[in-house]
# Entry
Amino acid sequence: MDALIGLLADCSDGVSHWGTGGWIWMGLMMLAGVVLIVALVYALIKGFQSSGTGTYHAAPWHRETPLEIAQRRYAAGEITAEEFERIRKDLGG
# Structure
C-alpha cells in the first residue's frame, strides 16, 4: 500500500493539468447556474401572473350573476338590445 501511495505521489506534481483555466470554467458554470435559476424564477412569476384569461377579477371566488353575464354579452355585442331587455325582465332586474 505504501508503494502505491508513493507511486501516485510521484505521478502528481500537486498542480492541476488545467493550469488556471479551471477557475475560469468554474466561474462560468456558476454564473450559468445563477442565470438559469433567475430565468426559471422569472418564468414562473410571469406564468402565474398571466395564467388567467386576461381579465382581472378582484375576488377570484366571485361568480358572475346571470344579469352580469347578460350585461357582459350585450356589451360585447353577442346579444341585441331586445334580447338583453328580455333577459333582464325574465331575471327580474
Summary: The chain has a mean pLDDT of 80.
